[in-house]
From TrEMBL, chain A:
The gene is Pyurf. Its main location: mitochondrion. Belongs to the PREY family. This is Protein preY, mitochondrial. Keywords: Mitochondrion, Transit peptide. GO terms for cellular component: mitochondrion.
Automatic annotation (TrEMBL), chain B:
One of its GO terms (molecular function) is 2-methoxy-6-polyprenyl-1,4-benzoquinol methyltransferase activity. The gene is Coq5. This is COQ5 protein. PANTHER family: 2-METHOXY-6-POLYPRENYL-1,4-BENZOQUINOL METHYLASE, MITOCHONDRIAL, METHYLTRANSFERASE. Component of a multi-subunit COQ enzyme complex, composed of at least COQ3, COQ4, COQ5, COQ6, COQ7 and COQ9. Interacts with PYURF; the interaction is direct, stabilizes COQ5 protein and associates PYURF with COQ enzyme complex. Signal peptide: none annotated. The keyword S-adenosyl-L-methionine applies.
């Protein structure tokens, strides 16, 4: 089964698409407030982020991590970030 | 497959594993959660849970516990801030938006008065000038003021966002999920930083204060509204009685959650008193640090400037 992490509302292990959670209805994910991009940086490195519209994430290229935007609210805690490695992980190797 | 970096899991896998070591944190220094002794990790967990549980009833409980007086405290905070249009505010631990909405109302009314004064002097605008005013949105109601609400708890932010929609607040308002100890904002960005009834729940207050200093512009103001210590002995006794006998009961009756409100009243007792908090704020680099007691010290507003 899939474990549910309360803090970042992510489903583990299922490999399903975006983490927005709602199965019903198409709903393009709520866009990020554009003015926020002026202020937001990575909480770890305090370096600028790139907004990736395709996955609705804020990406720190240097550290290779992406912060999700859920319901229009950017989730800027390191625990919620995912690694953006190009190489796909071996099957099952990243299961907790 | 996405790696879920849950805080409950190995923190060493974080890229910032080194950061934790630099902070000199052992596996679990003892801290207080109300009157209990817990590790730092447990404390964060428990506090997150408290606010997750109370989020939907947060406003109702505030009104019941303080007999509506919390509204006055927050109004006083806003008057003390006295923001002018164009101010950039960061409201940390601002969950349900009370401070943010007040800010918007305040700058809107200041802006109104500004525009009225302006119009009095511009009674005979040419058509060209009128046309231009519509183009440039010269009469924008907030005067470019902006407030960013930052909170670590998703449930509180959800409630805040819904309230905003319900009350019709949209312009100049944004919501970010973030940690006061590790803010996702660039240096020297904000004119004012507020934290109302939130700093008590932060695990590393010194870090939060340092972050507050970092994100403020030079000349920026730090404002903290928080429960504090009552020095008058008689009043203190009555306050204790009310806190420990009435509030948890209200919590159970209204929110169905006695424990969370028990935590609340205990955490108030554990929080540093006025002078100690003042010293901590000074340690973070702020100048002209001062505080104002409200209701004999039940609540205090601390203020400091980044110079």
């Amino acid at each position: 089964g899939t474990a549910y992490c309360r803090h970042c509302h992510r489903q583990q292990g299922s490999g399903s698409g975006s983490g927005s959670g709602s199965g019903s209805g198409s709903a393009r994910p709520e866009p990020l407030e554009p003015s926020l991009l002026r202020f937001l940086v990575c909480p770890l490195s305090k370096r600028p982020l790139r907004y990736e519209e395709a996955t609705n994430e804020l990406i720190n290229e240097e550290l290779g991590i992406a912060y999700p935007i859920i319901d229009g609210i950017p989730n800027m805690v390191p625990e919620a970030a995912r690694r953006t490695h190009k190489k796909p992980p071996a099957e099952g190797s990243e299961q907790p | 497959v996405r790696l879920c970096r849950c805080r409950c899991r190995a923190l060493l896998s974080r890229p910032a594993g080194a950061v934790r070591e630099r902070r000199g944190l052992a596996a679990g220094p003892e801290m207080h959660f109300g009157f209990q002794t817990v590790t730092e990790e447990e404390r964060r967990e428990k506090i997150y849970q408290v606010f997750e549980n109370v989020a939907k009833k947060y406003d109702v409980m505030n009104d019941s516990m303080t007999l509506g007086i919390h509204r006055v405290w927050k109004d006083i905070l806003m008057h003390k801030m006295n923001p002018c249009p164009g101010t950039l505010l960061l409201d940390v631990a601002g969950g349900t938006g009370d401070i943010a909405f007040r800010f918007i109302n305040y700058v809107r009314s200041v802006r109104q008065r500004q525009l009225q004064r302006k119009l009095k002097h511009h009674q005979n605008l040419s058509w060209q000038e009128i046309f231009e005013s519509y183009q440039k949105n010269k009469f924008n109601s907030l005067g470019d003021s902006q407030v960013v609400v930052c909170d670590i708890n998703r449930e509180m932010l959800k409630v805040g966002k819904q309230k905003a929609q319900h009350l019709g607040y949209s312009e100049g308002l944004s919501w970010v999920l973030g940690n006061a100890e590790e803010l996702p904002f660039d240096d020297d960005k904000f004119d004012v930083y507020t934290i109302a009834f939130g700093i008590r729940n932060v695990t590393r207050i010194d870090l939060a204060l340092q972050e507050a200093y970092r994100v403020l512009k030079p000349g920026g103001r730090f404002l903290c509204l928080e429960f504090s210590h009552v020095s008058n002995p008689l009043l203190s006794r009555l306050y204790d009685l009310y806190s420990f006998q009435v509030i948890p009961v209200l919590g159970e009756v209204i929110a169905g959650d006695w424990r969370s409100y028990q935590y609340l009243v205990e955490s108030i007792r554990q929080f540093p008193p006025q002078e100690e908090l003042k010293a901590m704020i000074e340690d973070a680099g702020f100048f002209k640090v001062d505080y104002e007691n409200l209701n004999f010290g039940i609540v205090a507003i601390h203020s400091g400037f980044k110079l």
